[in-house]
């Protein structure tokens, strides 16, 4: 037999109904009366911006990105306002040098444009302008190839990511390369992209570089955002660096651009890579014992005159201040400075760097090495010869000619002697505006 359920009373039924009703109402009441939870917008911290003064050269930070989702990066970048200061165009850039050097520079610029912005002439022109702006800025190398491949020897820290992330293993079609090379040629012959102004940095809108918060956002071209340094270093007068006039062979482009060949140096043209990498540090001269920031050296015969600047920069390393005076003959090289006027007359090259003042200068003895720009030539000074008297005693009493200041120019009558410094010393350099 099936057991008969116990009878229910009206009281029990009422209690069960109330419990069922409460089970429905209580959650509804809690949901309806709960305080509103406001969504928290994800933001990226922006460090305080320090405007670099004109007397201090701005540092060039390696490319490093904040770890952030692309969608969040786009939101963050869109929230950054554009600078309200005028976006003034850069001066036209016109490349100089030998045909081989110009071809190498053109191909370096082509690679930078194509691998950074793809087969798109609008984006390519903007990227080309940034690269040429960097060539003119004292904070960057003074050649097109030097700018494009700056830091490429490191797996991280390169300035253009395609030079150190393996992207060069990908080849563009000959047609795409030819279109980009035509854009590069126009830029190197004076075409200016006014949209970019004096921008020295850019990035795509789906990433956030660490340096972006310290620069002024000035324009947007396609998916690229363009930036310049804040303060004086982002204004046209700051772009006073002079193009080196020669381009190195870049081994990474050997299989892409004919001008860079297989890494062999074209006839009559020295490879900057020889000075920068082939000559071991152990083979390089030491600074003067009385001044660790000054060198009086016999120039390495493996280095061509066009590459003395590359050699000097490697020798100076990361010194903020460095002075190098070079002779081609060991017999002429003085052991100490200052040197005799006759020794200075045979000097072949000088290099002076003063990073605290944003100053860098390379000079050649143009009586020995022809330069395409006469501003690269050492200035001459006139030294007064001692007056001769008929008597030996008077001759002995005649003082010797004063030793010249190596960093300036003094005019006297007598013999012409090249001076290794610019027309003014670093402390006398024109004030930056």
UniProtKB/TrEMBL annotation:
Keyword Cytoplasm: no
Example GO molecular function: hydrolase activity
The Cell wall hydrolase SleB domain, residue ranges: 119-227
High-level lineage: Bacteria, Pseudomonadati, Pseudomonadota, Alphaproteobacteria, Sphingomonadales
Residue numbers spanned by region Disordered: 385-433
Species annotation: Sphingomonas qomolangmaensis
Matches recorded under Gene3D superfamilies: Cell wall hydrolase SleB, domain 1 (1.10.10.2520)
Name of this protein: Cell wall hydrolase
Pfam families, A to Z: Hydrolase_2
């Amino acid at each position: 037999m099936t057991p008969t359920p116990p009878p229910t009373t009206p009281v029990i039924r009422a209690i069960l109904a109330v419990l069922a009703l409460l089970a429905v109402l209580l959650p509804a009441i809690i949901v309806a009366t709960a305080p509103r939870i406001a969504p928290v917008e994800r933001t990226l911290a922006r460090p305080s911006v320090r405007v670099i003064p004109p007397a201090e050269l701005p540092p060039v930070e390696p490319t490093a990105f904040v770890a952030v989702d692309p969608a969040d990066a786009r939101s963050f970048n869109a929230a950054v306002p554009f600078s309200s200061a005028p976006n003034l165009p850069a001066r036209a850039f016109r490349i100089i040098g030998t045909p081989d050097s110009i071809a190498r520079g053109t191909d370096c610029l082509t690679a930078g444009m194509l691998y950074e912005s793809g087969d798109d002439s609008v984006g390519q022109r903007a990227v080309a302008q940034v690269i040429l702006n960097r060539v003119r800025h004292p904070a960057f190398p003074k050649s097109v190839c030097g700018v494009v491949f700056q830091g490429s020897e490191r797996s991280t820290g390169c300035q253009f990511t395609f030079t150190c992330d393996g992207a060069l293993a990908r080849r563009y079609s000959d047609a795409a390369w030819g279109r980009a090379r035509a854009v590069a040629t126009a830029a190197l012959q004076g075409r200016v992209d006014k949209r970019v102004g004096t921008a020295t940095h850019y990035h795509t809108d789906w990433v956030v570089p660490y340096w972006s918060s310290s620069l002024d956002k000035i324009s947007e071209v396609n998916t690229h955002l363009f930036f310049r340094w804040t303060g004086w270093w982002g204004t046209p007068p700051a772009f006073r660096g002079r193009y080196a006039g020669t381009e190195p062979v870049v081994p990474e482009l050997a299989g892409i651009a004919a001008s860079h060949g297989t890494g062999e140096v074209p006839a009559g043209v020295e490879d900057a890579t020889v000075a920068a990498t082939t000559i071991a540090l152990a083979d390089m001269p030491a600074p003067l014992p009385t001044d660790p920031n000054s060198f009086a050296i016999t120039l390495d015969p493996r280095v061509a005159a066009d590459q003395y600047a590359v050699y000097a920069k490697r020798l100076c390393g990361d010194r903020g201040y460095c002075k190098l005076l070079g002779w081609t003959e060991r017999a002429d090289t003085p052991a100490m400075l200052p040197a005799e006027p006759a020794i200075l007359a045979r000097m072949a090259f000088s290099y002076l760097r003063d990073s605290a003042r944003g100053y860098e200068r390379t000079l050649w003895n143009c009586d020995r090495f022809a330069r395409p720009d006469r501003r690269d030539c050492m200035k001459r000074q006139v030294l007064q010869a001692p007056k001769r008297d008929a008597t030996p005693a008077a001759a002995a009493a005649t003082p010797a000619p004063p030793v010249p200041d190596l960093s300036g120019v003094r005019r006297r009558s007598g013999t012409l002697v090249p001076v290794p410094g610019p027309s003014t010393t670093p402390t006398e350099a024109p004030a930056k505006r």
